[in-house]
């Protein structure tokens, strides 16, 4: 746990100088990104929290950090309870907490470049009801006291070739132009970094694990585009790739450019564009259309080239993971390995492919009780030895030019208990239920989320996160709009219709606090399915499994599997063996063959 008390005191002094009685600190950047560059890690700097979702509120006499159920254990390990109250969301919102904490006449500050318009409206209303005021700051007070704050990344922008993208940037921008015409809009403001990367077929290195560049874009009704990015990030090859239809401006000029749409209809996404953007458009006389970014759905439905690329990346990644699993089975049992050493070994196996560009997120390398925190992030301070009698969970992924991977496996160190085998098998049954699901085209993820939970529910158990998230194509490992989740889990329900070409994760789990965690994760592709005897006018969908690595047979209680579930597992393991065996050395091939042998009936 980092001692952050001096930072909290310095922020309170700065708030007093600005005549503010409090300040709201989100974990995001001016693009509403999930993962942010070091310069934007204000919440982590202030509190010590290392999770990927959270917020804080600092008042003169109290402070609170807000996290969801995925981080219940982690936030208590990393954030000092002597200075911070732990508040769970969505049970308690920031607006609701503030309404009970402020006094009449108080002024609570916020950075309008870090919050959505909806959040600002909700919070302002809650404060007004208590006689307090929400105040937009011109300069973030944390930046004034964070004296060694990193500068934004200088990483260059690179071209993402059509051979990987499957569609030219010109064609993508023409599609956006068609959408603008359908909405009777003159332009759309793109603020999500992965939307800009996808639309322009470029990539970057400004955010760890996500190949994007810090930029804004405004696409006009004729498809021409104004790109706002640090000019020194672009070399001649990138400028030539962008062409004359993309006008390049300094990123610092973006805010002023929003004032140039007097009398024009401009679309902006209320979930992805911050409050400051809406305010600037309003003040400039634009008619603002609050519409979802048109790239979001187009990006989610992968084209044939992207699908083929991901299949190739999956085989490469699965072979690296299989080599790691064989190593870990022996090395962890022998002793002397830790969470950090295991994560480093897996990274080395991926690097040996010669194609790895980055991890797709910070590897979750968690043994024993750490595995019970679904988004645990190992640090030198928390690094634990991997001991006999524990379950070791490793959730990881790679960024390759042709695809983004995400996979979770669990390894027993020594003999697992009967309870561990029972829980693992129930998670496997839920995983199979999703993998084999058939549903009408347009079904949403919230409707099938319960398939993964039923085997656990039948034993009075559950897990506190969504079952699946969308995945990008050499982009964000967490990509919307599709997901598989129920309404009462972090992020809310997924009401986005599932369509062919969407990729999702399939990752049910079980977590026993203080003991162990279990999660089995593969990536899936949504595909059309023909059902014999079905209504010929009703299009049906199912899933193709994209991830290939053995599922630990030593943790499976075959007596809990139905014949159909055993058939699925055996068929999956046959596919694993057929697809990745050629990429392995002879000894690992023999090990994999044993791991993929048919499961005997219970």
TrEMBL record:
Instruction: Tell me which residues make up the Peptidase M24 C-terminal domain.
Output: 540-599
The protein's enzyme class = hydrolase
Q: Does the keyword Acetylation apply?
A: no
For the Creatinase N-terminal domain, which residue ranges apply? 7-139
What Gene Ontology molecular-function terms does this entry list? aminopeptidase activity
| Domain Peptidase M24 intervals | 310-525
Q: List UniProt keywords, sorted A-Z.
A: Aminopeptidase, Hydrolase, Metal-binding, Protease
> What EC number(s) are associated with this protein in UniProt?
3.4.11.-
Family label: Belongs to the peptidase M24B family.
**What name goes with this protein?**
Aminopeptidase P family protein
In its UniProt entry, the species of origin is given as Sphingomonas kyungheensis
